[in-house]
Amino acid sequence: MSRIATAICAVIAVAAGGYWLTQSPSTVPVPQLVGSAEAQNADLDTSTIVEMVQGAEDAPVEIIEYASYTCPHCANFHQGPYKQLKKDYIDTGKVKFIYREVYFDRYGIWASMVARCGGPEKFFGITDLIYQGQSEWTRAGGPAEIVEELRKIGRLAGLSNDQLEACLQDGTKAQTLVAWYQTNAEQDGIQATPSFVVNGKKVDNQSYDEFKALIEKELGN
Can you give the pTM of this predicted structure? Predict the structure, then answer.
């Protein structure tokens, strides 16, 4: 089983448990919860999940990034090549950029819930803060300490405690995000993060120069 497929099963189990925010996986009867999640996922409306998009809607090149907030390679991409990509192609109307979360663990879904808590307007700013602080919040200690570090990031971005608690305790949203992620990952054949789909063609993580050459080719240059 691939890492993505294994992660799907693990995160579904946590999201379906009803105690997905506070209960340790070691205390959760995983097989029973996986079955429960699969039954519930059939009724979830994944169209309620908002695609997080930057750039012109009619840009000639569309790039979809699949990334996990707990993935160090994803953090490296967002602290380096992504910033150059945004300056050269997204902000200039040449690339429509779509960010889709991948969930390897419950920490990744908690980070996603915080990032999405402020809506599309705050999403990419919070995402940047989450990646900037990845090495700190992912090593903060146990689940309670990690959640508190993510709350701090949310507050730094202007979210209130009430907003954050409402987002973090929304179990239905968590399950819907997992179902959405599962559909996307299977549809695009995602096996690792970060992975990219450029105008419908999957490409692996690469240097900015390689990315630039690929984009220029798609632009016909």
Answer: 0.83
